[in-house]
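Entry type: protein chain
Record version: 2
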Amino acid sequence: LSCVGSSFGWLILCGDCGLIKLLNPLTREDIRLPYLLGFLFHILMPGADEVGDDIEEAVVSSDPTLDRDFVAILFKRGVDITYLTWRPR
């Protein structure tokens, strides 16, 4: 897993096969977000072996400890601004 950002004390981690999760290093709580897999992954991240390979920055909209209705936003590297958003299930 590689850290692509942090917000409100949470680390935003990306890994193999589209794994994206939030980790609070103090409480060790982690929140797994929906996977970014298959066809969509390769269109949005051409040439990337892992989601984290092509992410410039990531943030969450609010503190997941206090508000479970947050949105995670990942910004893709490149000339154009591209972003992906996730909501927890």
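Comment: The chain has one helix and seven strands.
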